[in-house]
Structures are given as structure tokens and as C-alpha cells.
Amino acid sequence: MHAAKFFCWHFMAYPYLPDDFDDKYESAWVTVPNSLWDSEKSADLYQEYIDQLVYGEELGFDGLVLNEHHQNVYGLMASPNLIAAALSQRTERAKLVVLGSLLPLRKNPLRIAEEYAMIDMMTQGRLIAGFVVGGGSEAFNYNITSVKARSQFWEGCDLITRAWTDDGPFEHEGEHYPLRYVNIWPKPRQQPHPEVWIPGSLSIETMEECAKRGYNYFLSSRVHGSATKAAVSRFAQIVEDHGGAYHPYRMGVLLSVYVAESDEQAREEASEGVWYFLRNCLKGHLRREGRTQTFGPGIPSQSKRSWENYLNNSEPGRDLLGDAKDWDTLDAGGSIIAGSPETVRRRLMELIELAGVGNFLIQFHFGNMKPELARKSMHLFATEVMPTLRQQSAELFARDFPNLDEQLGESA
Amino acid sequence: MSGRAIEVDGNQVWIIEEGNGGPVIYLHGFADVPGLAGDVPPLQMELAKDFQIIAPAHPACSKSDEREDLDNMEDLVFHYLDVFEALDLDTFHLVGSCLGGWVAAEIASRYPERIRSLSLIGATGLFVKGHPVADIFWVAQPEDGLYYNDLRNILFSSKDSEIGNELFPDGRGELDRELLRYGMFRFASRFGFSPPYLHNRKLRSRLRRYKGPALVIWGENDHLVPREHATAYSDELNNAPIEIISESGHSVQVEAVADAAALILKFLSKN
Question: Which residues of B are less than 8 Å from A304 in CB distance?
Fold first, then answer.
């Protein structure tokens, strides 16, 4: 039997913004002044966040998810590989999902091949390797030319996986990263190489490139249930078009969850952190108000045709996730689910049934949420939500994907 | 005549042509882009009274094909060598606005013998320490998902500029206009984003290779390219005269058509 997998995701947000942040600043990204950073208050911050992830392993989550962000308050993991190294010394079982390292920020992506191989060795093969092309904020922070970033990115992915699998030294004749001697030491623990996950936000091109290479696709765009279903159908079709067969572990989705004893209590306890996250951390990203730095005409990474498609299918100035007015709007959106164990169980099972996805990457800590609340929510999820979901999803997958054993055998 | 497509190295290049006389190549900037897709724009119409004006749209702009192989200024200069050959042009006057001015200056420094005169309007392209070109990519990201006040302020005399509001309106404009603007940003970011923000550090010392007549035109209120760049261009181009257009912003070519046309026509007819 194969059950859905649950991963504990952390952003490591900066929790000490002033109360008037939203009124005074146009963005929590790129230009958010670092005079707002308080080293004294933050003295134990990384330790606390790492402890929360270690607690995730204790609670039985399948894995812990790290990510890379720069010059922002949304996520303080400028180097997820540093946190992965720290976790390698404090965990024994959970997968470490680095989702992911930003390839364009390295002068040569071979550095990622090396660091990931080290992490995989240090964890006895527990790394899931995420490669990320990045968005607009890196264009501004790190001077990444968005128009060219994608072709560089896919070459980087291919260079890394080949460095892991082909015996060196060999010559890489790439357009962007030509190298005479590719010959990395160490090689990864997992053979032929760690599972590769690529985040995307519905672009067909990204799905196709993943399907071509046998990578897993992670939907990062915080969409609601039916949009997740649509994304899964699209990716499944693309996998089939490339001669493969879709199964639930080919995809992951990002969700945000808060569990408390009752629905009312969940909203009450989560409110401070969730609204801090929405109003502050998402400003400059998934918020209409202010100036978004993650997507738009100034960062023209999409082809003219894709941009035309976007214009035809979007309403200018529409509210984004961070503009939600109240809990009911959030509930309807479905990317942030707060409630009793029963409510959260029901809503996640609905999503699993609807979408047929097997990897759930769940954010439990929001913005300035008190650590004890995040831990309580994780605990309730792990003890009162996860067991039932595992059991029910295993039955569901056995019914809907009768060849799963065989498929997983093949891809392993 | 007005618009037609020519084929260059397998790519379609859209050309606006008008008038008879000595050939004048006009290389465009951001504010020209919507205009170059339709009838001959007003400035080009004025210049066409005495000259043959030829305005090619950069790759990805107007109806020109995007070139995936365009990575840097060198590639763009080669693209224009092919354009000039396709048009059977040996020598010509060269006029450039905004980043079209940068391209013109790069061409003049490489092939000075082909350039009969060089007119630069609010040209980007130079590094002037302490006076950077403003970040047009940043302000192309709308405020509150809808408003382009900062973009208009950078490209025109102010955010309230009438022509600015016509060419870069708030909210969602007509689809074809949106795509024209998007194409221009794709083009500009290919060689002007990373690094070095719409300039080439080596251009300044290379400009001395062009010894012909030059004219530098700048809007009084250029918020994209600081006035110090006009001085730097003039210094390196044998003290070329600087003409400041009062009340105009960066995009003199559409904000002050009559003034710009008069200055350029006078300059061209002398050379």
C-alpha cells in the first residue's frame, strides 16, 4: 500500500516587523529596508526554526522542506543548503527536501551538484533535490536576466544530473556553462541520483521539461482545489505524451494548514500569524497592493505568446492571496486551511480525491506566529489528521492507480 | 510608403519608411514602440519632408520577430549590419532615441566611416559614475497591480503627461498595445538588464573613433538618463552641441516633436 506523503515546510519568516509595516512599505521583498532587522531579538530565531523542523521528524512527517529566498522578510533561508547541513546532524529518518537551490545565482551550477552530493552523503541518501529558476525578485536582487534564465536553468539541471551519473572527467559542451573537466567528488549516496523536484506555477513549458527528464513537478502557486486538479490533469497528460505514466508521487502541492481543537479556536489562534503572513510577507509577491517583484512586465521571462495567454486569462488589478479580506475568503480559496482536525482531515481528503496528488508540502508556521502554536498545530496534524489521511489515501491510490507498485519499482 | 517587413537572417524586421532624400536611420526607444506599429509617427513624418527616413523596429518590437540568439550588443550590431545590407545602405545619417541612441553610438564607434551624422536623443549607453540610468524594469511592475505612475514619470516629463498616459496607460490596455510594450521590455532586457543596466562601460572610451558631426538632444526633465550623460556624450564626441528641450521629459521624440524635428532637420541639412 502506498499512502500520500506529508512534508513539513518552513519559510523561516522574519517575525519582528513594526505594526505599521503595511502602511509604510511597498514591498517585503528586495527593497524592504534591512534597518528593520533586529539582531538582538532574532538571536535565537534560526535555532527555533530548526528545532521546529526537527520536531517535524519526531512527529513522523515524511520529510522536511527548505527553500531559498533573498533580501526579504518572507523567508530567511538565503542558503537552504546550510540549514540542510544542520538538519543532517539532527535528523535520522526524514527526507530533506531542498526546494530548491536557485541555479542562476551560481556562476556555475556544478557547485549545486557538489553541495547536494555532500548533503546526500551526510544524510545517508535522504536528499530530495530541488532546482529552482527563480522569479522576479532574483532578477532585481542578483541581476538575473529573466529572458535568458530558463535556457540557462535547464542546461544547469542537465549538467548536474549528468555530473551525478556519468563517470568523469568528461567535457560539458554547454552554451552557458562550458566546462573541460566535469568530475565531481563526492557523488551522491542515492543511485543513480536523488529524486529531482522542480517547482512551477502552471507553465506548460516547465511541465514539459520535467516530463522529458523524469523529474517530479511541484505546484508552488498556492491555488485552490479545482486549479490543482487542472494542473494535475495537464501534467499527467504531458507525462503520457512523453511516454510515461502519471502517478501521485510525480507531483507535489504547497498547502498552508493550521489545526486546533475546534474551527473557532483554529481561526483565533492562527489569526495573528496568518494575517501578518498575508499582509506583510506576501507584500511584493502575492499581493495586489504595493508593487509585486515576483511577476510582471518588467521581468519578461515569459514568451510573448505566454504573456498574451496570461493577459487573456487574468483580470487586471484583481485581489491576490495576500489581499484576502477575511477568513471566509481564505477558506473559499483553499490554499490556507485552518480548522479542527476533522475539518482539516475532510478538506485534505477532498483534495486528495479530487486531484490525485501524493506529496503534500505543508506550511505550519506563518509570519510572526508564536512557536508554541505552530508546534501544537503540527502535533495535532501528525496525531489526529495524518494517520487517517494516510490510510484513506492508500486505499484510494490502490483503487485509482492499480499499477502503482510496478510504477514505483520502475522509477526507483 | 509606410510599413513593410524585410527578411534578415531568417527573421522578419519591420521597417517604417517615408520621404525622399538622403537616408536617415532612426533607432527607437521605449516610447516609440506603440507608434511604430501603425502609421508613420509624427517625428518621422517631419523628418521625411527633406530626407528618406527609415525606422526599423528592434527584434521583438512592433512587428519584428524576436531573436532568441540575441544576447548582447555585439549580436545586435551584427543584426543591424544585416539590416543595412538588406536595405542596400552604405552611408547614412543615424538618429537614436533612448536605448536606440545607445545602439546608434555603438554602431558609430565601430563603423564611423558609414555614419554621415549622429544624433542622440536621451541616449542610454554610458556609465557615468554616481549618475546611474534609472531602473525602468522596476517601475514597469505596476503599483497596486494597476498603476504605472513611476514608469510614466521615468519615460516622460511627469506621471500626468498626456502622451505618457496615451502610450503607457494605467490598468490593462488594449491587448495589442500591451504586447507591443511587453516585446520592448523583452528586447531591452536581453542586452540591457544584466549587467550593465542599459549601458556599456567600454563605450565611452570607444566613442572617440567617431569623428563626424554629432548632436546631443536631451529633455529638460529626463528622469531616466541623467543630464550628466548628455555632457559625457558631448565630451567624447568632440564637444558636440547639447540641445536641452524645455518641459520635455526623457522621450523628446514623442513629447516635443516640433522642437526635435526642427533641431534634427537643421543639423542634418548642414551635414
Answer: 60, 66, 179, 182-183, 186
